[in-house]
Write a structure and sequence with these properties.
The chain is built from 13 helices and 9 strands. It is α/β, with parallel strands linked by helices and 338 residues long. The protein folds into 2 domains: 200 residues, 3-Layer(aba) Sandwich (Rossmann fold), CATH 3.40.50.2300; 117 residues, 3-Layer(aba) Sandwich (Rossmann fold), CATH 3.40.50. The chain has a 5-stranded parallel beta sheet with strand order 2-1-3-4-5, with helices on both faces. The protein has a 4-stranded parallel beta sheet with strand order 7-6-8-9, sandwiched between helices. Helix 4 links the parallel strand 3 and strand 4. The longest helix is centred in the C-terminal third of the chain and has 20 residues. It starts with 5 loop residues before the first helix and ends with a helix.
Length: 338
Amino acid sequence: MTRYNRRALLKAGAAFAGASAIGFPALVSGQTDAIKIGHLTPLTGFLGAYAQLGIRMAEEEINAGGGVMGRKLAITSEDSVNPATAATKAQRMLDQDGVAFLMGEINSASALTIMQVAERNKRLFMQIGARSDALRGKNCNRFTFHVDIPSTVMVNAVGKALVRDNMMKDKKFFTLTADYIFGHDLARAAKSFFDANSGKLIGDELVATDVTDFSPYLLKIRQAKPDVVCSNLAGNQVTNLIKQYAEFGLPYPIVGFNLNTADAWAAGDGNLSGTWPTVWYHTSDVPTSKTFVESFIKKYGKPPENHAWIEYISLKIMAQAVIETKSTDTDKLIAYLE
C-alpha cells in the first residue's frame, strides 16, 4: 500500500545508498541466525537479471558492514515466471523457507498474486518494480508497499511534454496496448489525458503478451495515418516494437508511456526516438547515485539499469526499517513504513 510518501521513501533509499559507502550501521541483538528474505522477479528477458544484481549488491554491502542487528541477511531469489507460479513460490517461501518478508517483482500481474499471498498470510511485501495503478488502488492492501513509479505518473509526464511541444491538441493518436493489467492501466490513463487535453484517440490495438512480430499492427498504423503513435507496452515488447518501427520507416513520431533503460539499450543505437519516461538513469548527477553507479560498474563491469538501482535502495530501506524497529515483526514494520 502506498502509505509511505514516495518522495520520502526514495530519499531514504538514497540516504542509505550513501551510508553504505562508509559501512552499514549494525545493532547487536541476542539473535545470531540470518534474517531470511524472499525475493521474486521474472528472469525472462533482462530486467529481472538487473534486479537480482542490484539486490545482491545491497545484501553484500549490508552483510559486510555487520549485518542488521548483528544478523546477516540471507536472500532467497527465484524466477517468478508467471502470476500462478509467483503466488506458489511466495507461499512456499513463507511456509517452508521461513522468510521474514517478501520483496521484488516487476510484472504487474505477478505482483498482484504475490500481494494476495501477503494479505492472506498477513506478511509484508515490498513490491518494488511493478507499475500498475490498480495495484496501488482497488487491489491495494495494508501489507503491501510500492516503490516504483505508477502508470499515471508516467503518462502525465510524457503527456505534458507533448502538450509543451504542440503535439497534443487536435492531434490523432494510435496506441498499442499490452493486454494485461499494466497495459490496461496505461491505456486508461492515456485516454484520460487525451480527453482532458483535446487529443483524439483514433485507434487502440490490444497486443497479447507473447507477440514478437509487430508487422500486422504497423500495417494498421500505416493505414490509420495518425499524427502520433503511442506505446503502452512493457519489457521485451517495447524493444521489439522500437526495432521494428525503425525498420518499417513509418513517418509518424512514436512516444511511449513506459520504458526501462535496458529496453532502450537492447533496441540498438539510433532506434529509440521520441519522448519516453524513466524513473532513474545511471548518468544522474546525484552524489549517492554516482557512488552506487561506480560501485556497480566496478563489481559487474557494466552500468546499472533502473531495476538494479531500485532493488538496491529497496533492500537498504527494509534494512533500515528492521534496525529502527529492532524487529522483523510485520505489524511493527508496517507501522514504521507508514
